TrEMBL record:
GO terms for biological process: response to stress. This is MarR family transcriptional regulator. GO terms for molecular function: DNA-binding transcription factor activity. It comes from Goekera deserti. It comes from the Bacteria.
Length: 166
């Protein structure tokens, strides 16, 4: 038998966090960001390895070099774009040099500055890998539906706020 004071609470769950339309908690949002990053990068990395012999990090370094003026970028530009440390970018570019995809060269004005320049083989490999990468990412991001703009803007704000000055 129902008491009159129970009537308003009938059918309302005690924990509303799981209800549609309620905002997720900080921990759940963070978990989703980490999961999406991990799962998407692993999937794309695997495809790039299998189809093009490139890691995702190597691909992103090639992209930065390919999109730089004259297909030439400084080590610090590559490191910043890819999120690598100095030793990390040195190692990644070293592998790309070893495969004949880029060359290292000194800057004419400042001999201390080292740049990476895309080779014709690097351009060819990058173009093929870019199609794979971009198609996979585009397909996965279609799952955002009409929320793509909102998600992109929100993540850009968080990224800008979290960016550290070096």
């Amino acid at each position: 038998m129902h008491r009159p004071d129970d009537a308003p609470s009938r059918g309302v769950p005690r924990d509303v966090a799981g209800m549609p339309g309620t905002a997720p908690g900080t921990a759940e949002t963070w978990l989703r960001i980490v999961q999406v990053h991990d799962r998407v990068t692993r999937r794309v990395d695997s495809a790039l390895h299998q189809l093009h012999g490139l890691s995702l990090t190597g691909f992103e370094a090639l992209r930065r070099i390919a999109e730089a003026p004259g297909e030439r970028a400084s080590m610090s530009e590559v490191a910043e774009a890819v999120g690598l440390s100095r030793p990390g970018v040195t190692s990644t570019v070293g592998r790309l040099v070893g495969e004949g995809l880029v060359t290292r060269e000194r800057s004419g004005g400042d001999r201390r500055l080292l740049h990476a320049r895309l080779t014709p083989a690097g351009r060819e490999r990058f173009d093929a890998a870019a199609r794979t990468h971009d198609e996979m990412v585009a397909h996965l991001l279609t799952l955002l539906g009409d929320d793509v703009g909102v998600v992109t803007d929100a993540l850009a704000r968080v990224s800008a706020a979290a960016r550290t000055r070096r």
